[in-house]
Amino acid sequence: MRECLSNDYTDNFPVSFHVFGIDESFKPIIDKIDALRYDGVSAKTIRPEQLPLPVEEDRMVIILADEGNDSVIDAAKSFYQAGVLTLIVSHKRFESQSKFCDAQLVDTDAMYHPVKVILDMIFNNGLIAIDFNDIRSCLHDSRFFKVVETTGKGGEQRVADAISKIESIVSPKEMNAIENFIISISFNRDIQPQVNMREMKILSDFILNLPEEVNAIWGVFHDDKMPLDEVRLTAILSGKELMT
Fold it and tell me: How many angstroms separate the CA atoms of 127 and 220, rounded?
């Protein structure tokens, strides 16, 4: 990740990841995404009819929209049919008779956070890293996705505490509908006491207890902005019946 870049920094690098906010109401969110300054990421507000056609370099597009309409669906479909990972983050569920995206997330409150989670997982280095191929394997043709984040405290019970909160947020119906699952654990490199294998076993047991057919991926990251007594679990869940 680079610092001290001009506003036109994306003009100097190949752009593989796009975030489009459909109309000016998304400008505050787009500005925050743009401020992440990840190489190869372009974040813009745009009208549906201005959405560009996909090009060879494109790998992922995330479209923020208030609700579905024919212009947004047609534009998303052009990326999806070109093999670009196409995600919709919307206040309302898109209904369409034909396939137009890989997955959609309906969130009435926080639209910035799930986009940041996806980009952070792709671009941040980790002790056990997650990359774009992992994100694609989780979200490709998955229909719906959800992002969940919790924190845990309590000595060697930190991971267990964070997992219990995930289990309270994700309903049993959603848990049974999961087809793909990415989870990352983050903590300060100076965390006290240090995260040990006994704590990590709690996380691995949680993953092993998911339905056998679930494709599960996990990663471990340092975040030195975090408190020294806390761990954070971030999960992306996806599945065709996740929101039905």
Answer: 5
